[in-house]
Structures are given as C-alpha cells and as structure tokens.
User: Fold this.
Amino acid sequence: MTVRTAAGEALRLENVRKVHGTGDGKVDALAGVSVALPAGSFTAVMGPSGSGKSTLLQCAAGLDTPTGGRVFVDGAELAGRNEAALTRFRRSRIGFVFQQLNLLPTLDVLQNVTLPLKLAGRRVDTAHAVETLRRVGLGDRLHRMPAELSGGQRQRVAIARALVARPPVLFADEPTGALDTRSAREVLGLLRETVRAHGRTVVMVTHDPVAAAHADAVLFLADGRLVGRLAAPTAEAVAERMTHLGDDAEVQRARTGA
Amino acid sequence: MLGLALRSLRRRVSAFTASLLAAFLGATIIMAFGSLLDTSVSGGATGAAAETLTTMAAVVGGWGLVLVVFAVTSTLTLSARQRAGELALLRSVGATPGQIRRMLVGEAAGLAVAGALAAVLPAWLAGRGIVGLLHDADMVPRSIGHTFGAFAAGTGFGITLVAAVVAALLAARRTGRERPADPYADAADAARLPWPRIAAAVLLLGAAVNCAVLTMTVMRDEGTMAMPIAAQAAILGSLSLALLSPALLRGATRLLERPLGAFGVAGELAVVSLRRRTRRLAAVMAPIILFTGVGVGTVHLQRTENAALATATDLPEADARTLETLNYVVIGMIVLFMAIMLVNTLLAATAHRRREFGQQRLAGATPGQVLGTVALEAAVLAAVGVVCGAAVSLLGIVPFAVARIGSPVPEGGPAAVVVVAVLAAALTLGTAYGAARRALASPAVDAVTP
Ligand SMILES: Nc1ncnc2c1ncn2[C@@H]1O[C@H](COP(=O)(O)OP(=O)(O)OP(=O)(O)O)[C@@H](O)[C@H]1O
Ligand SMILES: [Mg+2]
Assistant:
C-alpha cells in the first residue's frame, strides 16, 4: 500500500465518480468530487436531497465502490481490496453512522454497540461501551431491543456503536436527523469532543444549518459536484448559502461544460 | 388488489417458488395415489386386487395428504411472515384486514391451482409406474390398466386448494396482529406456541403411541399387516415433533449455548438468531424431523420385515422382493418430498436474510464470519432435527421388532441412521451455505435498502 497522501491527511478523494444504475435509469450520483480533509477536522456536508451526500460518504468509507477516481483513508488507498480485506480495514479505521441506522434487530442495545469489537476480534471493553452509551443518554436502556426504542434513541445507539471502536475517521449520515434540539446538541457536542480531545476526524452529512455550524467547515454538494466550501460556519451563513445552492450548481455546470 | 398481489409476488420469487413447489409436489403425490382408486373402480377390480388398490390409495395417499397439508401450510406461513413488514405497510396506508385477507387468499388459491395443474402429467406417470409394480408383484391382474380419473383430479385439486386457502387465512389472521411498519418489529418472533398447535401435537403423539401399542398387542400375530400400523406410529410421531419444533429448538438452544460459545463471535451470533428467530428456523427444522423420522423408520421396518420373512417364508421370495421395492418407492417419494421441502424452505428463509446479513456486514462482519454463523445455525438445525426424528422413529421401529422378531432391537444396525443423518446434514448445510453465499453477492449497502 503506497502512501501518496500528505501527512496529517485523514481523507482524500481524487475525482471520485459514481454512476448508479444502467441505461435509462442511470444516475450520476457523484460527478467527479475531489477533496482532502486534515486529520482532527470536523466537516459537515450539505446539499439538497438526492445531491449525492450519502453516496459520497459511502464511497469514502469503502462501503460502495466508486465508478472512477481514488479514495484514501488515513493514508491508505481503498481500491483493489476484496470485501473481507475492506471490512478489516474499515473495522480498524472507520466508524459509520448510517442514515438508515442498520442496527441488528435481534441484538439489544449493548450487544449492538459491542458487536463491531467482537467481530474484529478485539477485547470488548464493556465499561467503555456502557460509558459511551451513557454519554448519548442511553445508560438506562442497555438491554432494550431496538424495537423497544424511539427513533431518536435508535439513532443514538447507532452513534454509540460507531464511536465505541475509537476509529480515527468517523462518518455520520444525518446523525441528528431524528433528534430533538437538546439531544441533537448533545450528540453534536459528543462529535465535537471526539475531534477536539481525541484528534479524530469527523465527516457529517446534515440538512440542519445549526448542526452544520458545529463543524470547522461545511462542504456544499449539488448534483453530485462540490459547489462550495465555508470555513468557520455560522448557522445564518450556512442557511444563506443553502438557498443559493441551485445557482452555484448551474454556474459550475456551465464552467465545466457538462 | 390482485394486481398488487402479483407485483409483490415478483419481488419475492424464492418464497413464492417454495410454496408453488410444495403445492406441485403435494398434488403429484395425492393424484398419483388417488388414481389407484380410479384404477380400481374403472377396472372393476374385485377381492384382493381391489383391497390392495384401495388400501394403498387410502393409506399412502392419506399420508401424502397429511404431509402435503403440512408443507403447503408451512411454506405459505413462512412467506406471509417474511412479508409481515410489507403487509403492515399496506395496512398503515389504509388497506383493511379484509383487503389483505383477500390478497393473501387470492395468491394462495392461484398458486394451488397452478401447482395442481402442473402436477397432472407427473402424477399420471407416477400412478402408471405404481400400477406397473403392482402388476409385477401379481397383486393386481394385468387386465386392470391404470386409469387417471375424477377421483385423482378431484382430490388433487381439492385438497391442495383447501390446504392453501386455509393456510392463507391463518397467515392473514396472524399478520393482522402485528405492529405496523416498524423495521425492527420483525425481530420479536420468539413468541410462545399457540395452544391449538400444542393440542394438535399432543393428539398426534397420543395417536402415535396408540399405534405403537397396537403394533405390539393386537397386531402382534398379524405378520406383515403390522407394518403399516408401525409406520403410522413413526409418521404421526414425526408430525407431532415437527409441530413442536419451535419449542424443541428453543430447548436445544439453551443446551447448546455454551458449546456454541466456543466458536467465538460466529457462535454468539448463531445463538442470538436461534433464540430470537426461533420460529423461522424451526420452520426449517420441521422437514428435517419428518425426513429423518419417516426415512429411518421405514428402512428399519423393512429390514426387520426382511429378517422375519427370512426365517418364516409364507410369501414367495419374488413377491416379497417386489413388495419391498414397492414399499421403498412409496416411502422414497415421501422422503424425497420432505428433502425437497427442506431445501425449499431453507432457500426461501435464507434469501430473505439478505438484509440481516447486510446489517452484520456493515457492523464489521466479513463475508466469512457471516457464512460461519449461517453454517453453525444450519449444523444445529440438522443435529437437533436428526436427533428428534431418529428418536421418534423408535416409536414405530421398536414395537414392530417386538411383534415381528420378538426382540426390541431392530434389524439393520445403525447404518440407516448414519446415512439419513449425513444426508440431512449435507442437504441443510449445503443449501444454507449456497443460499447465504448468494445473499452475500450484492454489496452490503444495497442489501440493507428494502
Ligand atoms: N442504489 C442506487 N441505485 C440507483 N440510484 C441511486 C442509488 N442510490 C442512490 N441513487 C441516486 O443517486 C443520487 C444520490 O443519492 P444519495 O442517496 O447519495 O443522495 P443524498 O444526498 O444522500 O440524499 P438525501 O438527503 O435524500 O439522503 C440520487 O439521485 C439517488 O436517486
Ligand atoms: Mg442520504
């Protein structure tokens, strides 16, 4: 594995493209995205529904294979590995909070959270898992089944599961989508904290300008392209930018002649 | 609603194929043996020939019937359970229970008619083959040719249709009680067995014990005639345990929890799914019990019978041999049927787990770990099923040995059990592994999107 990325770079995408489907149903979910994120950064990804945010995260995390381009995580290129190798790589470097959560319905809360560690053959630090669950406000629901939880509680289980393996890079697809303002603030504080105190890198998709304002920078996506970047964002600036995203996409398309 | 039903059928081809195959094979057996009655009536059979034809039609056809009802019901129930989410979704957007019931019943009826139609030709051929064997054994005069008539067709279509519709009604009633549209709700299927099912199992077991006692007492001096009664004991007992399979599996899981733990995370996940998805996995174990119970039972009964005949020849040897062949053909059909049901149910059940496997993979499981879990589960199902089936077959084997050769130890040694066990294990593991590999073929992120 050649390390071609600059030191201190947690994630690097080079002209990543992804085409979903074939023939008439073909969708350019990503039309060439290049981005580099330093280690220890907290980045929000925003864009209209269908703009390719989930696809971007999944390609970056090795969950989906890009149609073209290259992906580097923590200095290592993802291409050319089979599923087992990719899985082992993900287990050690990547945490992922899915938009559809993907909790296992047959496992209780604590079992769901410790599963990735068990699968990785790592020692299960139950105390740490319980502490993580406590910090997302689920300390008293360790042995509930997902079916017995509210949507927001499930979302927090998914977040705890992604955090518990202490991955250097964490992707979160709308981690606060089903949360009330207070829980959302707590979860965002938790993500912020993992970046600040532990030097991890967080990439978060969100539709909420207030959530995005917790990040160091916001990337704007429209029609599968990166159309802007905002450093040190405030909720107002983000909201303002979002309303003009359509125009940005037009301009960009005209420029690249697509 | 029917258009909706057809569209939804296309999306779950494997469960649909399982039910269709059960209807088809079941109708084949029922019609093949039903045609023996047509043969008897239209050929004007009298005396021993008429008795042979009627008895075979009634006894074997009757067993075929019971197994068919069982198979059709279990595959249809499985498919309805797999669609619990979809049906709940339909209800949540305003479908009434009546509409859902009509949809399920319409589907089941269509399936039964299609299966029975496809079964006509194979059933006719099989019936002809059996009558041919009976000719060879001089049990039916050659002047009476095979006829496939109203009785065969009537029972074939009628029984398959009724079984399917009743199963659909039961399934509709069950899904009506489920919580609507919660993707996590389908985990809770470890519910207790409903009392009618327990009652039926107890009745069947009582009947089996009764047959066992009859074999040793009333039928003791009746020679060969004791065999069908002993066979009934084995079949009834197997059916009873098949009905109780969720409870048996739950008990076995408790015992096996520790040994499975030795297999690490795969063993742990296997225990979880055995505990939480007991009903669905038990639906796979039921045909294993029937396969083993009927298979082991018949082989040993026939071996014992051979041993008895060898000492006291009251039947010409050629006839004895043909009778043996006939016996194996008949039971072979039933065992083959159960084997196909086993593969069938397992394929359908595993294909439905694509999403679950996807979730495991996204949580960090390699394909190898998923396959390991599936293999462990299958091994448990095969082992528990074979043990239960073999144990319950003793209900027929031992009394018959006592009656025929005066010793409770059956003839034939452990070979039959070993062969049946290996076959059951190979079928279960092979099918589960193959189906799981297919379910793993698509990327995990695609597998979890409904
Ligand atoms: N498996 C798939 N097959 C076909 N098309 C897909 C698939 N997944 C996504 N797409 C398409 O790709 C485009 C980008 O989808 P993506 O899920 O990345 O959007 P998103 O920005 O995450 O949207 P949302 O905010 O609604 O979650 C959409 O047009 C979508 O329809
Ligand atoms: Mg998305």
Summary: Chain B has a mean pLDDT of 85. The pocket of adenosine-5'-triphosphate (ligand 1) is lined by residues A 20-21, 27, 29, 47, 49-55, 99; B 446 (CB under 6 Å). Chain B touches chain A at residues 182-188, 264-265, 268, 272-273, 276-277, 356, 358-369, 443-445, 448-449 (CB under 8 Å). Chain B has 16 helices and no strands.
